Amino acid sequence: MVMLCAENLTRRFGSRTAVDGLSFTLERGEALGMLGPNGAGKSTTFALLTGMLEAHGGRILFDGQPISPTDPAFRARIGVVFQKPSLDDKLTGRENMKLGAALYGLPGRVANPRIEKFLEMVELTDRADEPVERYSGGMKRRLELARVFLHEPELLILDEPTTGLDIAVSRRIWSKLLELKRESRTALLLTTHDPEEAALCDRIAVLDRGRIIAEGTPSQLAARVGGDVVSIETDEAEPVLADLNARFGVDARLVEGKLVFEQPGAHELLPRIVEALPGRLRSISMRPPTLGDVFVKLTGRSLAQESTKDEAA
């Protein structure tokens, strides 16, 4: 059942179109990741969905009905996690939770047991009475997630939820998100530039220059690469690139200083390349494709490269 539907969302900043006719759907209990580099339009889309910016075109539907993101009735049913921390560092973790409950309009008899439940869920009960300024970045992120769970939202919208966190903390946060999705049928919509994070979602929409250029499950998108990914380092990038394509019929590209191409059964080709180009290669390797490789395949650029120089919002 479709919960959220965006139809032809558009947002411009002067002469630049940051979000260009964006359309997608999100079902109840589904996780949809919007994957793209800085400047792809992810943060602007986040701002449109949460009412921080007004769309110049298109509409948003929730449970089949057109809504405004600023409508209090809509906001009461969603939870929002911003990329930058939004906690009061001078308050304790528990006080931040109580403040959040008050903002959601939850009476104490409802809020108090939920505060304890979600503090325990994110493993912060033993630190709940310490000022947040003593918390690590990962602890603050977990507290923000606990706080947004308080009113039991049907939809969570998250902007780069694990940016700046180490792998262990990111995995713990994702464990909690997937647990919530599984047990409460909460829908998740997140923006990310991290292909590994996007791969945890049920579906992925690949964004580039404000448009969705591909959509599907992680396995469906990875299948578009069409083989193992071969990566070559050389001091003669252009001549070696020409030789590779001419001799072996591959479609190698120069990406971030490396020659990259996809090839089914690449393990059979690598020895032939090394033999044909003696002394000209610094390294050659192969690996299964990732969602990062999908982006390179679709755009010719890596996710580390910006789509535009100045994504607003």
Describe the fold and architecture.
The protein has helices at 42-49, 72-75, 93-103, 108-121, 137-148, 167-184, 195-198, 218-222, 237-248, 266-276, 291-299; strands spanning 2-13, 16-27, 31-35, 57-62, 65-67, 78-81, 155-159, 187-192, 203-208, 211-216, 228-233, 253-255, 258-263, 283-287. The chain is elongated. The protein is an alpha/beta fold and 313 residues long. It has 2 domains: 2-219, P-loop containing nucleotide triphosphate hydrolases (Rossmann fold, 3-Layer(aba) Sandwich); 226-288, 2-Layer Sandwich (Alpha-Beta Plaits), CATH 3.30.70. Mean pLDDT is 92; it is low at 309-313.
Summarize it.
By secondary structure, the chain is an alpha/beta fold. 35% of the residues lie in helices and 27% in strands.
Task: Count up the domains.
Answer: 2
User: Overall mean pLDDT score?
Assistant: 92
Uncertain ranges? 309-313
Q: How large is the count of helical segments?
A: 11
Strand order of the largest sheet: 6-7-8-3-9-10
Structural class: alpha/beta
The CATH architecture term of the largest domain is 3-Layer(aba) Sandwich
The radius of gyration is 23 Å
Strand content: 25-35%
Helix % is 25-40%
Shape summary: elongated
Major sheet attributes? 6 strands, mixed
Q: Can you identify the CATH class of the largest domain? A: Alpha Beta
Number of strands: 14
CATH topology-level name of the largest domain:
Rossmann fold
Topology as a string of helices (H) and strands (E): EEEHEEHEHHHEHEHEEHEHEEHEH
Distance between the termini: 31 Å
User: What name goes with the CATH superfamily of the largest domain?
Assistant: P-loop containing nucleotide triphosphate hydrolases
